[in-house]
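Q: I'm building a small set of examples for a reading group on sequence design. Run inverse folding on the following structure and report the sequence directly after it, with nothing in between.
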């Protein structure tokens, strides 16, 4: 098995593949189809292994916010909400896999909450042996942000960003590519501050603090937005990029190693 082959972890934000504005789950099907084609063009089977992770967007954040299951599950309605949230994630993942398979990417859905153990919202462990085996077999595992079992509170949300950092550490990742709905990292949230300036590179090394202007998301968000993304990358000492996956061609460019968005280093 080619365990030394470079490993790219591509995270596609829920804000990219769903319409985050409304309360209802809404897929951005055409955009997802384009991104699937770009993944098919940009990936390098044989030369590099690929894991795809996607966020929940409007399939997850509104229901979680409404029912409070990210803070735990205590009663019957919350138990139904936890199951309903998981079911919605399976539906979204099925759309992702369908689009990828259609363009020849051997996508294989892996349901993270089948083995993830959380503690107060932190991911403690998740089985990865099957994932490594699947990568060795030439498949492209597809994982997603989900509600998961939490030892302390029964349920918490395991975000795609947490999974990306965890897999980078556990499997010895080469880079995390965060496809999101902004050009990259700015000195402040560009949707709130028109004077925010763009950072071409960002060092998340131990001596460099996270810029204060990196915050959550401006829409309904239960997983911490851009700040949490960078905290997870920093904890994993991950290199990679944060780039705009809503822009045509960027997913392919990022996969092919081109300079898109903000380059992240952890010196
Ligand atoms: P995704 O759904 O793609 O994972 P998130 O909504 O979690 O994305 O995070 C992306 C959002 O983070 C952006 O839309 C932006 O509003 C917000 N954000 C906050 N601070 C910053 C910053 N300093 N630079 C860029 N984006 C930021």
């Amino acid at each position: 098995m080619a365990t030394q082959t470079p490993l790219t972890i591509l995270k596609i934000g829920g804000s990219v593949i769903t319409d985050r504005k409304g309360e209802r789950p809404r897929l951005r099907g055409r955009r997802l189809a384009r991104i699937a084609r770009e993944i098919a063009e940009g990936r390098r089977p044989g030369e590099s292994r690929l894991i795809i992770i996607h966020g929940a967007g409007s399939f997850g954040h509104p229901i979680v916010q409404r029912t409070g299951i990210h803070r735990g599950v205590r009663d019957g309605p919350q138990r139904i909400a936890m199951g309903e949230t998981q079911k919605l994630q399976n539906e979204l993942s099925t759309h992702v896999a369908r689009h990828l398979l259609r363009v020849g990417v051997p996508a294989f859905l892996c349901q993270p909450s089948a083995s993830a153990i959380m503690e107060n919202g932190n991911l403690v462990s998740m089985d990865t042996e099957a994932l490594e085996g699947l990568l060795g077999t030439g498949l492209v595992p597809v994982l997603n942000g989900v509600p998961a079992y939490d030892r302390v509170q029964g349920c918490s949300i395991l975000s795609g960003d947490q999974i990306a950092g965890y897999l980078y550490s556990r499997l010895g990742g080469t880079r995390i590519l965060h496809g999101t709905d902004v050009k990259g990292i700015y000195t402040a949230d560009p949707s709130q501050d028109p004077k925010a300036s763009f950072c071409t590179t960002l060092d998340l090394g131990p001596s460099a603090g996270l810029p204060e202007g990196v915050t959550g998301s401006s829409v309904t968000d239960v997983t911490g937005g851009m700040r949490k993304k960078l905290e997870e990358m920093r904890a994993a000492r991950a290199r990679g990029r944060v780039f705009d996956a809503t822009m045509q061609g960027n997913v392919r460019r990022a996969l092919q190693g081109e300079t898109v968005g903000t380059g992240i280093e952890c010196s």
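The longest helix spans residues 76-102.
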